[in-house]
Amino acid sequence: MNKSEVLEKIRAAKRSHVTWVKRARSLIDGVPVDKEKVPVQPTDCIFGQWYYGDGKMLGKLPSFQAIEDPHTRLHDTYSKIFKLLFGDNKPSFFARVLGLKYKPKEKDLHEANELFKELQAWSDIIVGRLAKLEDQIKSMPER
Predict the structure, then answer these.
(1) How far apart, in Å, are the Cα atoms of 107 and each of 40, 51, 84, 92?
(2) Tens digits of per-residue pLDDT, 63-117?
(3) Nearest to 79 by CA among 108, 40, 113, 35
(4) For the chain, what is the domain count?
(5) 104: CB partners within 8 A, 6+ apart
(6) Percentage helix, strand, coil, to 5, in the chain?
(7) What domain range includes position 9?
(8) 143 occurs within a structural domain
(9) Is 55 part of any domain?
(10) How far apart, in whole angstroms, are the C-alpha atoms of residue 121 and residue 115?
(11) Angle, vertex CA 47, rays to CA 21 and CA 108, nearest 5
């Protein structure tokens, strides 16, 4: 894979990450979203599939390694949001996707919104570190 192909893969991974964050926001806002569109596990999202798949070829680069912890923390935060909105004694995610009306408690919504601020902060860190990774790749000689 040449340098421009690697850069395009990184940019595609970044775009999928940004889209994932938007879908997480939509979920809190009550917009029905398919479960597959906002996976809880870091290895299940499109970005994670790239990071733990094709991206591993960049694994020796410190700028690549610096992405894993915030990505894991982002998903941990999202997991808390997901449990608040769809955890115990709440209608299933699938019931919501099918259009069954469910309005979370105001307290849970408030907490989910506060957690989303944390999630957004982790996302900003990831995007910044991806920019550093891109810069590092750009500065490498073509093979």
Answers:
(1) 22, 35, 10, 19
(2) 999 999 999 999 999 999 988 887 764 555 555 555 555 577 889 899 999 999 9
(3) 40
(4) 1
(5) 84, 85, 90, 112
(6) 70, 0, 30
(7) 3-138
(8) no
(9) yes
(10) 10
(11) 30
Is the distance from CB of 88 to CB of 111 less than 8 angstroms? no
- pLDDT digit string, tens, across residues 36-72: 567 788 998 889 999 999 999 999 999 999 999 999 9
Positive or negative, the CA dihedral 72, 46, 28, 32 is: negative
pTM: 0.84
Identify the three-state secondary structure at position 122: helix
Closest C-alpha among 27, 29, 67, 66 to residue 47? 67
What is the DSSP secondary-structure string of 66-96?
HHHHHHHHHHHHHHHHHHHHHSTTS--HHHH
